[in-house]
Design a protein that fits this description.
disordered N terminus, mainly alpha, about 65% helix, 18 helices
Length: about 475
C-alpha cells in the first residue's frame, strides 16, 4: 500500500464525513445522557433497548436496539477508520516504527488517564447532592485537562511545552490526592469511565493490529476469526479450559480485560473502510468532485436516502421483532443499493461502491447472527450487534460523504464536523462545564421549570447538548484541540 496521502476532494488529508460521523456519535451520546428518567419517561425507543422505562432496570433477555445503541459503535467504527489515515500520515513523514509504537502507547496512556480523571471530576461522582462548591470543583477539574491534553503550537519553545504540561499533571495529581468522595474514599483505579477504558484498549490494540496487517487484509480478518472463537467459547455460557482462563486473565483489571477486545469486531471493519479511504486519497486527482462525470443528481439522492433508510428499517424492525419482514426488506435494500451503485464513473463513486459492498457483508453477517444469544442486544453485546452496527456505520458514512463531498454542503454539517474533530472536550464538558455553568447561573432552574412534560424534558436535553456542541465548535475553529 502506498502511504502517501494526497490532497484530494475529501478535505485534504481528512475525510470530513468521518469527522461528521464521529461528531454525530458523540453528540447523540451526550443527548442520550440528558434524557428524562422516572416520572417523565419518553417512549422506550428513546432509551437503551435493554433498559426500558419506567424502571430502566437492565433486562438482559430483552432483544432489540434503538438509536441510543448506535452511538458507541459508530464512534468505535470512526475510530478504527481513522487509524490508517493518522498512522499513514506519520509514516509518510518518515516516523520510524519505534516512534509510531510510542505514539500508540502514549495515546493509550492518555485515554487511560482520561478514563480515571473524567470520572473523578464529575459533579455526580463528587457528591450525591452537588452544591456550589461541587460545581466549582467540577469546573476546576475540566480546566486542569486543558494543559495536559491541548495540542500546543510547535512554534512554542520546548520549555513552554514542558512547563504547561507539568502544571497540568501537578494539578491532576493534587486533585487525585486531595479530593474525597461521598463514601469517604479517595483516588481509586476502580473509579473510571468504562466507555473511555474500552476506547483506550481499542486505540492500542486496534492501532497495533492495523500496523501489523496494513499490507495484508487476510491476517486482519484472521484475527477477527480468532476473536469469534474466543467469544463463542465464553459466551453465553463459558466452558472451563485454557480458552476460558485466557478470557478471565488480566494483569491490570482496571484497564484491560480480554472481554473489551470484542469491540475490535467493530473497529476492524472500521480499519477496512479506512484503508479504502486512504487508497482513494492516494489515487484521486486533486480537484472538485464535480470535475469529472458523476452519477446523476437523482440517483445520488436515492442513494443518500437509501443509506439512512437502512438505519430506520433495522432499528424499527429489530426492536419490534418483525424479524422476517425486517430481514427481507434489508436484503432487498442491499440489492437496490448495489444496483444504484453500478458502473461508477470516478474514484469517489468507486469508493462508495466498495464501502457499500462491505456494508452489505457486515449487515448480512449480523442478520444471520441475529437469533444467536436470544436476539440482537447492546448489553450484553451480541455478535449480531457488532456486525449490524458496523454495516450501518458504513451506510451513514457514505450518506454523510455524499452530502459533504458530492453536493458540497459541508456547512450544513459543520457542527458535527467540529465536534467530531474534538470529541473528548465534548465528552468531558457536558458534565464539567455546561452543567456546572447552568447550575451556578440559574440556567438549570429555568430549564427544569420548562421541562414539565417528557418531550419538554427532551427539549431541555437538546438545549444542553447544543450548548456543548457550540462550545466545542468555537474551540475547534480556534484550533484548540485535545490530543486524545
Amino acid at each position: 500500500m502506498n502511504n502517501k496521502v494526497s490532497r484530494g476532494v475529501l478535505g485534504g488529508s481528512r475525510m470530513h464525513a468521518l469527522d461528521a460521523l464521529r461528531g454525530l456519535a458523540i453528540l447523540a451520546m451526550l443527548l442520550s445522557g440528558q434524557l428524562p428518567f422516572g416520572s417523565h419517561d419518553l417512549p422506550s425507543w428513546m432509551y437503551h433497548a435493554q433498559e426500558p422505562p419506567p424502571t430502566h432496570e437492565w433486562i438482559g433477555t430483552l432483544p432489540g436496539i434503538t438509536w441510543v445503541d448506535l452511538v458507541f459503535p459508530f464512534f468505535l467504527f470512526s475510530m478504527g477508520a481513522a487509524f490508517p489515515l493518522a498512522l499513514a500520515r506519520r509514516m509518510n513523514e518518515g516516523a520510524p516504527a519505534w516512534r509510531l509504537g510510542l505514539f500508540i502507547l502514549e495515546r493509550g496512556f492518555l485515554l487511560a488517564f482520561f478514563a480515571l480523571f473524567v470520572q473523578a471530576i464529575r459533579p455526580s461522582t463528587l457528591s450525591h447532592h452537588p452544591s456550589g462548591e461541587t460545581w466549582l470543583l467540577g469546573l476546576l477539574g475540566f480546566v486542569i485537562l486543558f494543559p495536559i491534553l491541548t495540542r500546543l503550537p510547535q512554534t512554542w519553545p520546548p520549555a513552554a511545552h514542558w512547563g504547561i504540561r507539568l502544571a497540568g499533571w501537578l494539578g491532576a495529581t493534587l486533585f487525585f490526592i486531595l479530593v474525597h468522595y461521598p463514601d469517604g474514599s479517595g483516588f481509586s483505579l476502580e473509579r473510571s469511565d468504562i466507555i473511555i477504558v474500552v476506547l483506550a484498549n481499542m486505540a492500542v490494540f486496534g492501532s497495533i493490529l492495523w500496523m501489523l496487517t496494513r499490507q495484508h487484509l487476510l491476517p486482519r480478518l484472521g484475527v477477527l476469526g480468532i476473536l469469534f472463537a474466543i467469544r463463542l467459547s465464553n459466551m453465553p455460557q463459558p466452558v472451563d479450559g485454557w480458552v476460558h482462563n485466557l478470557w478471565e486473565f488480566s494483569p491490570a483489571p482496571w484497564i484491560y480485560r480480554l472481554y473489551y477486545l470484542q469491540y475490535l469486531c467493530i473497529v476492524i471493519p472500521g480499519t477496512i473502510a479506512g484503508d479504502l479511504i486512504l487508497n482513494y486519497m492516494n489515487e484521486a486527482e486533486p480537484g472538485p468532485s464535480g470535475a469529472t462525470a458523476r452519477w446523476r443528481t437523482g440517483r445520488l439522492v436515492l442513494i443518500l436516502a437509501l443509506m439512512f433508510l437502512f438505519v430506520l428499517v433495522l432499528l424499527v424492525g429489530l426492536k419490534a421483532r418483525w424479524l422476517a419482514p425486517c430481514t427481507l426488506t434489508a436484503f432487498a435494500l442491499c440489492g437496490i443499493g448495489y444496483g444504484l451503485m453500478a458502473r461508477p464513473n470516478n474514484a469517489m463513486e468507486q469508493l462508495y461502491r466498495k464501502l457499500f459492498c462491505w456494508a452489505i457483508y457486515w449487515l448480512v453477517l449480523g442478520l444471520f447472527f441475529e437469533p444467536y444469544e436470544g436476539g440482537i442486544k447492546k448489553d450484553r453485546a451480541t455478535m449480531s450487534y457488532y456486525f449490524v452496527t458496523a454495516g450501518l456505520a458504513i451506510c451513514v458514512l457514505v450518506g454523510l460523504s455524499i452530502i459533504i463531498d458530492v453536493f458540497g454542503r459541508r456547512r450544513w454539517l459543520r457542527l458535527l464536523i467540529d465536534n467530531g474533530q474534538n470529541p473528548m472536550i465534548a465528552y468531558a464538558g457536558i458534565n464539567n462545564f455546561i452543567t456546572p455553568a447552568l447550575a451556578l447561573t440559574g440556567g438549570d432552574y429555568l430549564l427544569t421549570s420548562f421541562a414539565s412534560t417528557p418531550w419538554r424534558g427532551f427539549g431541555k436535553g437538546l438545549v444542553i447538548t447544543l450548548l456543548m456542541a457550540v462550545t466545542v465548535s468555537f474551540l475547534t475553529r480556534r484550533k484548540i484541540f485535545w490530543r486524545t
